[in-house]
């Protein structure tokens, strides 16, 4: 009996550990997880297959979840109801319903599920952009990232960085190919260029910071841990199976935190020693909004002020796009 119970628990652990694919779908167009509140107790939850006790439909998503959801949509319609452990989910399976969810009624679905890994990495709840529910902090962080990174004016200001990195890329390829006489793996060089470009938009000194290659490797580790939620997020009774992953997450977070802290301290010192701002990057924008002891960021409004932890959380969300 005990042996059968142990085998069952290990099977569930294996299923949940393979939710790395599902982790990406959660942030994409097809699946929106929410806690299971009853909306006025009036409208029924969308229909779906019969759920197993405790694990719900987790066993269906262990392999090729996109194909499983496609097959379910053919039987249950464009919106399929799923039970993922203690969490309820809906799978939106057609472009029309995806538009309804993500565009027409986006505010209704704007909240994010609570995952322990996110809180551990991102210094608590509602501190970053991607995993923050719809609230004033989310609007503030989105505004900061938009102004600092993706406005047309900002794109024009950063044109010299893009030109430099493309020139550097072409020079690297030319040297590695020995003047075009040797084949090279182009994808790897484009990936490195994208990483350098993103890092320089965050920190204009990135190319000259020692150990920046190690930072890129650590970003890969962070992405790996982000991609698979803890088993306890879905089945709290099995939280004891997450012990080693929690230890691993804390270790990676401490290393990442030390790198970001050193980056911020170095920039603060450089800004104090410089009579005029000369960095023009996201890090400078964040530090210009740093909250003082009164909770204000200089002349900025209280609601625009950022703590150091909130700055790190924003950087941690943007950094994975560099790899």
Automatic annotation (TrEMBL):
SUPFAM superfamilies: Cytochrome P450 (SSF48264). Transmembrane segments: none annotated. GO terms for molecular function: heme binding; iron ion binding; monooxygenase activity; oxidoreductase activity, acting on paired donors, with incorporation or reduction of molecular oxygen. InterPro entries: Cyt_P450 (IPR001128), Cyt_P450_E_grp-I (IPR002401), Cyt_P450_sf (IPR036396). It holds the Pfam family p450. This is Cytochrome P450. It comes from Ceratopteris richardii.
């Amino acid at each position: 009996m005990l042996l059968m119970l142990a085998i069952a628990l290990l099977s569930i652990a294996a299923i949940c550990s393979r939710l790395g694919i599902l982790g990406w779908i959660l942030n994409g167009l097809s699946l929106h997880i929410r806690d299971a509140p009853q909306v006025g107790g009036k409208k029924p939850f969308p229909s779906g297959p019969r759920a197993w006790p405790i694990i719900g439909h987790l066993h269906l998503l262990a392999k090729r979840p996109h194909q499983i959801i496609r097959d379910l949509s053919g039987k249950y319609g464009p919106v399929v109801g799923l039970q993922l452990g203690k969490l309820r989910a809906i799978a939106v399976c057609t472009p029309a319903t995806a538009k309804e969810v993500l565009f027409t009624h986006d505010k209704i679905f704007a909240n994010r599920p609570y995952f322990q890994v996110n809180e551990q990495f991102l210094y608590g709840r509602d501190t970053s952009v991607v995993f923050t529910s719809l609230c004033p902090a989310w609007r503030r962080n989105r505004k900061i990232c938009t102004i600092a990174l993706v406005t047309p004016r900002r794109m024009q200001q950063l044109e010299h960085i893009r030109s430099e990195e493309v020139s550097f890329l072409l020079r690297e390829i030319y040297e590695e190919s020995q003047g075009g006489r040797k084949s090279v793996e182009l994808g790897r060089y484009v990936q490195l260029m994208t990483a350098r470009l993103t890092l320089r938009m965050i920190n204009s000194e990135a190319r000259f910071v020692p150990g920046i290659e190690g930072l890129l490797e650590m970003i890969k580790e962070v992405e790996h841990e982000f991609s698979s939620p803890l088993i306890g997020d879905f089945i709290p009774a099995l939280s004891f199976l997450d012990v080693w992953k929690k230890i691993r997450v804390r270790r990676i977070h401490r290393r990442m935190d030390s790198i970001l802290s050193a980056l911020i301290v170095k920039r603060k010192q450089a800004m104090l020693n410089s009579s005029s701002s000369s960095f023009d990057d996201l890090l400078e924008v964040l530090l210009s909004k740093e909250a003082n002891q009164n909770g204000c960021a200089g002349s900025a409004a209280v609601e625009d002020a950022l703590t150091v932890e909130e700055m790190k959380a924003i950087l941690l969300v943007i950094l994975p796009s560099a790899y």
